[in-house]
Design a protein that fits this description.
Blueprint lengths: L1 H50 L8 H14 L3 E6 L3 E7 L2 E11 L26 H16 L6 E9 L12 H7 L11 E11 L3 E3 L2 E4 L1 E10 L3 E2 L9 H19 L6 E10 L5 E2 L2 E10 L2 H21 L3 E10 L2 E3 L1 H15 L4 E3 L10 H6 L2 E9 L21 H20 L2
Parallel strand pairs: 3-4, 3-5, 5-16, 6-15
Antiparallel strand pairs: 1-2, 2-4, 6-16, 7-14, 8-12, 8-13, 9-11, 10-12
Helix pairs in contact: 1-3, 1-9, 2-3, 3-9, 5-6, 7-9
Bound molecules: zinc ion (ZN).
């Protein structure tokens, strides 16, 4: 008897589980089918953005085209001019529920493209070398899928097309910070946000995730070293800022090797040195720029403090003056572990279990971090590497190629992260 009761219970439970699966699979099937249908357009949209890249805070055409596409797609609400050229769209589901945000970035980089693609950049010296063209196109693709699934959406999807992810020109505001300031996380309130970045180290068909810190905090610094100009032949009559800078560059190497806890990642890189006008003049000034990266606030603070001390005291020891300016680009991109654990199933549904990999923390930065400081966020990597077509080059390089065959998975991942979140939260 007891055995029979248990048997019936097992049957009932498995029926309940399978009906859940059937409903789940229906959504998955729909997303898969619609993502496939929209792929040719995603490719076309992406190639158009790729041919017409625009720098941070200058994405006028991109913002206009995004708004036009969203109008054609038929989203419920479009707001333009957010954080200069940003666009925010709402898709309202037919059932009640919370809101969820999906974010893509739209800006390009000051790089001369060398891909030789038929749809290569038409703007000399400007290139979509970080894949933001594809991010924008894939989010438009997700918009088109979600609009056709309104009857299955409990709640609202908020699509954020963000300008100036790569950093704003000096003296300007922009990017995620300005979007937040202008209320992108309010009206309706956003309780969770998702985003993705193409990754040329990861094969097409794969997704990578990490719970906790995914990308590094980024500080940018500028050092101005001032000495006294003199003839190259009579250095004792001046104060040489170049020799002083050489000491400073060497001295700051001890921050990563000797000052930061060796169990924590931290990087200090000087990437620009500018000085001199002639081979026989010791100049008055040297300007250096670079960045400090870390995955922990204490490491970040320690590195910045040591940096200031070492630079100013090495300068003093060499008889030059040092002016140091710091600009905080963004904190660690923090993937909310709770949200991440729940979203893992959506990644598996999108890519298949063997195609979802855990990744190491990376030292690159991402201004998605600002949203994830305000609300739980989850940011993933989409594989676009394909050796057979030469899609192997790194981001921020002139030969970057993306494997367009990866795009349907990007669209699916966006849609499933959002849909599964809404269904989970609405069902509570
Ligand atoms: Zn990027």
């Amino acid at each position: 008897m007891k055995r029979r009761v248990i048997g019936v219970l097992v049957v009932l439970l498995s029926l309940a589980a399978s009906s859940r699966t059937v409903r789940g699979d229906d959504v998955l099937r729909r997303v898969e089918e619609l993502a496939k249908q929209v792929t040719p357009q995603v490719i076309e949209w992406r190639r158009d953005f790729h041919s017409n890249p625009e720098l941070s805070n200058r994405e006028v055409r991109t913002g206009r085209v995004v708004a036009e596409r969203l109008r054609e797609i038929g989203v419920d609400e479009i707001k333009t001019g957010v954080a200069h050229n940003g666009v925010v769209a709402l898709i309202r589901g037919k059932k009640p529920g919370p809101t969820v945000a999906l974010r893509a970035d739209m800006d390009a980089l000051p790089i001369q493209e060398e891909t030789g693609l038929p749809f290569a950049s038409k703007n000399p010296g400007v290139m979509h070398a970080c894949g933001h063209d594809s991010h924008t196109a894939m989010l438009l693709g997700a918009a088109k899928v979600l609009v056709q699934m309104r009857d299955q959406i409990p709640g609202t999807g908020k699509l954020i097309f963000q300008p100036a992810e790569e950093g704003v020109p000096p003296g300007e505001e922009g990017g995620a910070r300005l979007m937040i300031k202008e209320g992108v996380l309010d009206n309706p309130k956003v309780p969770a946000i998702f985003g993705l970045h193409v990754n040329p180290n990861l094969e097409t068909g794969k997704l990578a995730y990490r719970l906790g810190g995914l990308m590094a905090s980024v500080d940018r610094f500028t050092i101005k070293i001032t000495g006294k100009q003199s003839h190259a032949a009579m250095p004792w009559q001046g104060v040489d800022p170049i020799v002083a800078s050489a000491h400073i560059i060497t001295a700051v190497q001890t921050i990563a090797s000797r000052k930061i806890d060796a169990r924590q990642p931290g990087v200090v890189s000087i990437c620009i040195i500018k000085a001199g006008t002639a081979w026989n003049i010791i100049p008055r000034e040297v300007v250096m720029e670079g960045t400090i990266r870390s995955h922990d606030l204490d490491v970040r603070n320690k590195a910045a403090e040591e940096f200031k001390r070492i630079v100013s005291q090495t300068a003093a020891a060499n008889g030059v003056k040092a002016q140091i300016a710091f600009e905080d680009y963004g904190p660690v991109t923090w993937n909310d572990p709770e949200l991440g654990k729940k979203t893992f199933a959506s990644l598996v549904r999108a890519a298949g279990e063997k195609n979802v990999l855990e990744t190491q923390p990376v030292m690159g930065g991402e201004d998605f971090a600002h949203y994830a400081q305000k609300v739980p966020g989850f940011y993933i990597f989409l594989g676009v590497r394909n050796e057979s077509i030469g899609a192997v080059h790194a981001l921020h390089t002139p030969k970057l190629l993306l494997d367009e065959a990866a795009f349907p998975l990007g669209v699916k991942a966006h849609c499933l992260m959002a849909l599964d979140y809404l269904r989970r939260e609405a069902g509570k």
